[in-house]
Design a protein that fits this description.
heterodimer, A: 415 residues, alpha/beta, Rossmann fold, 4-stranded parallel β-sheet, 52% helix, globular, B: 262 residues, Nucleotidyltransferase, domain 5, 5-stranded mixed β-sheet
């Protein structure tokens, strides 16, 4: 029987700095939105942020706002308003919670930063590498604000990526420039663009180094910690603030390893999280797993914001490469191999697949992968049904029992 | 402790629908058992079942060495020494009766489980139904109310079926609509009830691939044995059922209680 008791999560010394980075990000956007001094681009989370930075836009990420709506548990209250507008409960709940919140004139930014509304966009820029939903999501705002919607249409379910494909995506990114200039961005400046690409790469390298500290036994942090600390990797990539933050975080994580400080005291089981976080249940899941001495050491989700392919010497091409070689864009064979490599690095004993009701592209259990991975690696998997934001799709009691039973199963295997 | 009495071990399974208590002697004989609706006060129900089971075993509470609780209400049992999940307990209980590599199908009041065990009884994998009621006891309860048929009459009715009635949906509400449609079409009640059983079986068989030896447990199996026969026909081989299949979880919990030693 696993000893299940609530264990308080260890706090990070750099949490204050994290709050400052995020506050600076949102307050700068809010000031610009109100004054009109700087132009604002909304960008999908894995969109061409470096180009936007290079053209002087302040960049706002609706998916980050979606995650905040989930984590603050505001999502369930506002999703129905988007449903009522014809946006199905079965599509992305970031989309439905974000549009629902907008319709209700609500935002978690108010409580966090005393900001009354999300910043007004001058242009909306997507990359469908995540999903088609980001385009439909931004299209709603494009109609509402009467501002241009531009973006990159990716390939999907690809294995090997050829040069022609990279070249084509690079051209799509470059072709955004006239529209972005027309939307009020500064005239394209190659040096400024290259600088943003360089900073983004540096942020990615540091973020990867932070994530890989979890290969230490015991791990100095958990997936649940990383979902919080990844915020600058999303919103501050391409800026010096992002680089500075991860230098501090990395130092703290290395210090934890050196000092033998474990995220989970008595770490007994190491797990991999495949799929989206369940934002409204991060704390509950983290505490349950801590109580079971189980540390989620790695995840596909947090790894998504590693773009080490970026190269300021060939900015368009390397951006195309970075944003096309993503896990989510790839075929099943690539994904399986990727998780196996993660297994080699992090030495986890089990995988939790989160089957997110409204996020099929991030629910990788649906085509037999858990069974194949089990066959290839011997690592057992648990599938939990839930959602990133829509907690109407989540059964807490059933999930708790499933997790507890999974840990029991792992313990039986240790006897 | 009762004079000269051997120690006893207790398993308590507080399910979404019913609470079951088992008492084992040191030789792992089931000497006491009791069940009743879980109701709204799990602690009270557990105590009530315990008293009935002790009475059947002719023992007293002081004879109990250890108690393990399981099921949705496992944390509400005031006299429990520790908890185990119902997945672990059903596996344990079924393996005791059939000690080989088995696939356990448990149909509970609110959830189904398919649990695969290796020849040593270790869990290889398990799956629970998604959170909808399809294929669970709750589905049959809902349908018995809709059809105004006592739950206990369904098994004998299904056995009288002469025609195959297929229900296509896996949604309980949609299935209820389909049942109404079948009634309008003049289908006979026994055929519809058998169609409901078939719907439950289809939901079970799509959860996981089954191993060679299949064991079924749970309250639905205990009170609807014809359903087991239908599974056998469907998969083309015998299905093993332990004695008192509704007690498999509580039995497994009592076995876990015994593992701590006498």
């Amino acid at each position: 029987m696993a000893d299940q008791k609530t264990i308080k999560r260890k706090t990070f010394e750099c949490s204050g700095k994290l709050k400052q980075v995020m506050a600076d990000h949102f307050l700068e956007l809010d000031r610009a939105s109100q004054s009109g001094d700087s132009k604002i681009a909304w960008c999908s989370s894995v969109g061409p942020a470096e180009l936007l930075r290079g053209m002087g836009f302040l960049v706002y990420y609706p998916e980050n706002h979606g995650a905040m709506l989930g984590a603050s548990r505001m999502a369930a209250d506002v999703i129905p308003y988007a449903n009522a507008e014809g946006y199905s409960p079965d599509i992305c709940s970031y989309l439905t919670s974000d549009i629902g919140a907008f319709l209700q004139e609500k935002t978690p930014l108010t409580k966090a930063y005393n900001i009354s509304a999300v910043p007004r966009p001058d242009v909306l820029v997507f990359n469908t590498n995540q999903c088609r939903d980001v385009k439909d999501w931004f299209a709603w705002y494009s109609r509402h604000f009467n501002v241009p919607l531009v973006g990159v249409h990716t390939y999907r379910e690809i294995g090997e990526i050829g040069y022609d494909q990279i070249k084509e995506i690079a051209k799509q990114i470059e072709d955004l420039i006239p529209d972005l200039e027309a939307a009020g961005g500064a005239k394209f400046d190659m040096d400024r663009f290259k600088e943003a690409v360089g900073l983004s790469k540096k942020t990615s390298q540091l973020w990867r180094a932070c994530l890989e500290t979890a290969s230490a036994v015991p791990s100095p942090w958990t997936f649940f910690d990383a979902t919080i600390h990844m915020a600058p990797a999303v919103v501050a990539r391409g800026t010096q603030a992002g680089v500075d933050y991860y230098e501090i975080l990395l130092k703290e994580l290395k210090g934890r390893i050196k000092g033998g400080i474990a995220a989970i005291e008595g770490e007994k089981h190491r797990l991999y999280w495949e799929g989206m976080p369940i934002w409204g249940k991060l704390r509950a899941l983290s505490e349950q797993l801590s109580g079971l001495k189980a540390c989620v050491v790695a995840s596909t989700y947090c790894n998504t914001w590693i773009y080490e392919q970026l190269d300021s010497a060939k900015p368009f091409e390397s951006m195309a490469q970075a944003y096309t070689e993503l896990f989510i864009v790839r075929d099943e064979a690539y994904k399986e191999q990727y998780i196996q490599e993660c297994h080699d690095l992090y030495q986890f004993d089990g995988i939790i697949f989160h089957d997110a009701k409204t996020c099929p592209n991030n629910s990788n259990n649906r085509y037999g992968m858990p069974e194949r991975l089990r066959g290839n690696t011997g690592v057992p998997a648990l599938i939990i049904n839930g959602d990133l934001n829509d907690l109407r799709c989540y059964s807490e009691e059933q999930t708790k029992t499933n997790i507890e039973a999974f840990i029991e199963q792992l313990e039986e295997g240790m006897v | 402790m009762t004079a000269m009495a051997s120690p006893i071990f207790t398993g308590v399974d507080i399910g979404a629908s019913r609470t079951k208590v088992t008492i084992l002697d040191p030789q792992k004989n089931l000497i006491g058992r009791a069940e009743k609706k879980s109701g709204t006060d799990f602690s009270d129900t557990a105590v009530s079942c315990l008293e009935s089971a002790l009475k059947m075993a002719n023992r007293s509470r002081t004879d109990i060495v250890k108690t393990v609780s399981t099921g949705y209400g496992r944390n509400n049992v005031t006299f429990s020494d520790r908890t185990k999940t119902e997945i672990g307990c059903h596996a344990k209980g079924c393996y005791f009766h059939f000690p080989k590599a088995i696939t356990v199908i448990d149909i509970g009041g609110q959830d189904n489980k398919v649990i695969k065990l290796d020849e040593k009884g270790n869990r290889i994998s398990f799956k629970m139904n998604r959170k909808c009621a399809a294929g669970t006891g709750a589905f049959l309860e809902e349908m018995s109310m809709r059809l105004d048929i006592p739950l206990e009459d369904m098994d004998s009715l299904a056995r009288k079926a002469t025609e195959q009635v297929e229900l296509g949906s896996y949604c309980t509400v949609f299935s209820a609509t389909e049942v109404l449609e079948k009634i309008r079409q003049g289908k006979k009640v026994p055929d519809i009830v058998k169609g409901l059983y078939l719907s439950v079986i289809k939901r079970l068989l799509e959860m996981d691939a089954l191993g060679d030896t299949v064991v079924m447990s749970g309250g639905v199996v205990a009170y609807n044995p014809y359903l087991v026969k239908m599974v056998e026909e469907r998969i083309g081989r015998e299905v093993l059922v332990p004695d008192f299949p509704q007690y498999s979880g509580a039995f497994g919990a009592a076995l876990f209680a015994m593992e701590g030693g006498i």
